[in-house]
């Protein structure tokens, strides 16, 4: 047993720090005396040393060492061609079997480049591996890189190759569905496995559910997932619950979304996936203390995921600390450039700080990553409206309406833009009536309809609309708007009650507080003119003044530049 064998054993045993030291010393010896180790032994030392460096998260250094190992491997190939073995053929074959795989080394290099965000270099390395020699994990990495680079055809081909080798690779299935491959086509790839293995009949339904999700058909996705979740064998599955919670969120059903997230959290206290959306919803609903606790708990689980940073950013945003929210969103993007919630957080922070053009870039990237999430489009439309780009906003709203169909959400988005143009007020009213006919409890549509009624000074009609909605659910914005309407009809006592209820639901709701203080100062209100503002509902509560954020701007801007996320 020689020294290389000992190094190999330590590497296999996971003694990375030990391997790093001994391999470094041995490589120096080899440099000073090239005859000390054979080319194959030097190749092994370089790979084991690179593995130890990779384990220490020194990815640029590791990539360099792996590339040195590949150069050394070329020397071995040349030597074997020049000096064919006569008597030592068997020994050479055994030695070759012990050598680290060249393909695995290339995969490691690509992994380093991916972590360093050098995606083009990673793709180039993996494409250098012949197709027949690509393992499922190589095809999976290639597929994800192609998808990120917008090379959809290549991504589809790679995902299909993963499924050909591993038919139960469910993340590859999701990847294909996200690239608009039909659910039936994806299901056909896995059909043989479903039919040959018992208790896998649910998989075809699972595929159908995710096909609905990526097709933007949220209601059918909810119904399909619920049918799966009710099956005894899949009941209380955390992944299904998180997926269901996310679809409820996409459908605008905040109550059920929060309920399912909480159910998943109870089953798995260490759950991270989806908690950024849950934290955002809780912050939007005004439960900032709970959001702070949630963020702290997730940081204790892992600070290397985007979710805890997004949650803390949401807490800062709804506390009107926009510079800090911007920094936290940038940190989350640094950890996971595909985090839609982090992009949205940074986008709304930039928008509220008046940096609209930068915000637009982030919303567009979020749209690219999640083309069926309407909140991405809403953020972009808000930016267009903030910069008086009504034509661009109208074009975007019409495109959503045509692409995703006439549901309550798309109708409300289109109506929101129509409300900005005096010439399209009647069209806005028609669209909102259609939205409320489909979903009478859809809060964003109710808010916009109440806004329109306020403009028309139809206060009694507005009061009736808000009372009917509040009979089935309680919401801060609706209670505050009802208070505004009641002031308009001189019902001050009940208006005060409604403001109080709104503040109990969200103690940070500045507009309810202002309404209450105004009533207290003016014992005899004289006019019934009311200004209703539902923008915070449409933009998920993001609109607000910038007071309290300027004092932090320089500090957090500096930190944001440090992370290179401007």
UniProtKB/TrEMBL annotation:
Biased composition (Basic and acidic residues): 515-524
GO biological process: cell division; positive regulation of mitotic metaphase/anaphase transition; protein ubiquitination
Gene Ontology cellular-component terms listed: anaphase-promoting complex
Family annotation (Gene3D superfamilies): Tetratricopeptide repeat domain
Keywords from the UniProt entry: TPR repeat
Location of the region described as Disordered in the Swiss-Prot/TrEMBL record: 515-566
Entry superkingdom: Eukaryota
Residue stretches of biased makeup (Acidic residues): 530-550
Chain positions of TPR repeats: 238-271, 340-373, 476-509
Name of the protein this chain belongs to: Rap guanine nucleotide exchange factor 1
Species the sequence originates in: Sinocyclocheilus grahami (Dianchi golden-line fish)
């Amino acid at each position: 047993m020689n020294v290389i064998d000992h190094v190999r054993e330590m590497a296999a045993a996971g003694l990375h720090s030990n391997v790093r030291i001994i391999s470094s010393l041995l490589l120096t010896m080899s440099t000073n005396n090239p005859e000390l180790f054979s080319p194959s032994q030097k190749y092994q030392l370089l790979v084991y040393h690179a593995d130890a460096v990779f384990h220490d998260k020194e990815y640029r250094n590791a990539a360099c060492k792996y590339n040195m190992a590949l150069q050394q491997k070329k020397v071995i190939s040349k030597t074997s061609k020049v000096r064919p073995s006569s008597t030592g053929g068997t020994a050479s074959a055994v030695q070759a079997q012990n050598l680290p795989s060249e393909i695995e080394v290339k995969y490691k290099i690509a992994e380093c480049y991916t972590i360093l965000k050098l995606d083009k270099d990673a793709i180039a390395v993996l494409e250098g591996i012949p197709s027949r020699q690509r393992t499922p994990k190589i095809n999976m990495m290639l597929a994800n890189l192609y998808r990120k680079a917008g090379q959809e055809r290549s991504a589809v081909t790679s995902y299909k190759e993963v499924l050909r080798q591993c038919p139960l690779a469910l993340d590859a299935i999701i990847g294909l569905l996200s690239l608009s491959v039909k659910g039936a086509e994806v299901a056909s790839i896995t059909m043989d496995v479903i039919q040959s293995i018992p208790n896998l009949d649910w998989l075809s339904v699972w595929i159908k559910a995710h096909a609905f999700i990526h097709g933007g058909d949220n209601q059918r996705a909810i119904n399909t997932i619920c049918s799966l979740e009710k099956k005894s064998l899949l009941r209380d599955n955390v992944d299904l619950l998180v997926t269901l919670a996310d679809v409820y969120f996409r459908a605008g059903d905040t109550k059920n979304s929060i309920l399912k997230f909480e159910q998943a959290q109870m089953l798995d206290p260490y759950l991270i996936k989806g908690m950024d959306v849950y934290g955002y919803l809780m912050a939007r609903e005004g439960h900032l203390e709970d959001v702070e606790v949630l963020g702290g708990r997730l940081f204790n689980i892992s600070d290397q995921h985007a979710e805890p940073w997004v949650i803390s950013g949401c807490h800062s945003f709804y506390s009107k600390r926009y510079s800090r929210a911007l920094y936290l969103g940038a940190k989350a993007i640094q950890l996971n450039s595909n985090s839609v919630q982090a992009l949205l957080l940074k986008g709304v922070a930039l928008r509220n700080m008046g940096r609209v053009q930068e915000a637009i870039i982030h919303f567009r990237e979020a749209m690219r990553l999640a083309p069926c999430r309407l909140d991405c489009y809403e953020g972009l439309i808000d930016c267009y409206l903030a910069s008086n780009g009504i034509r661009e906003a109208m074009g975007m709203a019409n495109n959503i309406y045509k692409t995703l169909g006439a549901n309550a959400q798309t109708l409300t988005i289109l109506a929101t833009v129509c409300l900005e143009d005096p010439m399209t007020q009647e069209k806005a009213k028609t669209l909102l009536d259609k939205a409320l006919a489909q979903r009478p409890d859809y809060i964003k549509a109710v808010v916009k309809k109440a806004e329109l009624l306020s403009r028309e000074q139809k206060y009694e009609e507005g009061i009736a609309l808000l009372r009917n909605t509040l009979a089935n659910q309680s919401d801060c914005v609706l209670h505050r708007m009802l208070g505004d309407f009641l002031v308009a009809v001189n019902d001050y006592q009940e208006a005060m009650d409604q403001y109080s209820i709104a503040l109990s639901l969200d103690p940070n709701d500045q507009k309810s507080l202002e309404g209450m203080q105004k009533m207290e100062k003016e014992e005899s209100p004289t006019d019934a003119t009311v200004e209703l503002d539902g923008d915070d509902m449409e933009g998920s509560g993001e609109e607000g003044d910038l007071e309290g954020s300027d004092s932090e701007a320089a500090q957090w801007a500096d930190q944001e530049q440090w992370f290179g996320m401007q």
